[in-house]
């Protein structure tokens, strides 16, 4: 399930999130938005708790659409610690998106492994 975010909840759910957030700017009339939705759900399932997935209706949240200078829909932003780390727009279809999501997933699963490894090493050092 994708959490629906509005201008009212964006700061709390996205900018202040303790985990990276993939923001999907979409609209009900956007055919490509509907086509990629299953891929985004699959991506979320594969990433688990390492990345949060939220949706923003670009038509109903005009300030956010302007703030992030949307040129086309869908537009995906990966936000980490309040900063946009990746911007995905203008992809041609599922395969384009799948490749971009795989790259993001690889980046964040490697980062999580490195974090876990360094924490374990830190604990081992303290125990010694």
Automatic annotation (TrEMBL):
Q: What GO annotations for molecular function exist for this entry?
A: protein-disulfide reductase activity
Pfam families xref list = Thioredoxin
Q: Where is the Thioredoxin domain?
A: 1-106
List the GO biological process terms.
cell redox homeostasis
Keywords of the record, alphabetical order, are: Redox-active center
Q: Which InterPro entries match?
A: Thioredoxin-like_sf (IPR036249), Thioredoxin_domain (IPR013766)
**Lineage: superkingdom:** Bacteria
Q: Which GO terms describe its cellular component?
A: cytosol
The keyword Transmembrane helix appears for this protein: no
Cited SUPFAM superfamilies: Thioredoxin-like
Q: Cross-referenced PANTHER family, in alphabetical order?
A: GEO12009P1
Family membership: Belongs to the thioredoxin family.
By what name is this protein known? Answer: Thioredoxin family protein
Query: Which organism is the protein's source?
Result: Dendronalium phyllosphericum CENA369
User: Top-down, what is the taxonomic lineage of the species of origin?
Assistant: Bacteria, Bacillati, Cyanobacteriota, Cyanophyceae, Nostocales
């Amino acid at each position: 399930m994708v959490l629906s975010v509005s201008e009212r909840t964006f700061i709390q759910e996205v900018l202040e999130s303790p985990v990276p957030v993939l923001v999907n700017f979409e609209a009900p009339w956007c055919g490509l938005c509907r086509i990629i939705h299953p891929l985004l759900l699959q991506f979320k399932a594969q990433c688990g708790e390492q990345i949060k997935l939220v949706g923003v209706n670009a038509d109903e949240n005009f300030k956010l659409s302007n703030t992030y200078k949307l040129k086309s829909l869908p537009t995906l932003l990966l936000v980490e610690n309040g900063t946009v780390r990746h911007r995905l727009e203008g992809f041609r279809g599922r395969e384009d998106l799948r490749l971009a999501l795989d790259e993001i997933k690889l980046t964040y699963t490697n980062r999580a492994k490195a974090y876990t490894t360094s924490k374990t090493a830190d604990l081992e050092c303290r125990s010694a």
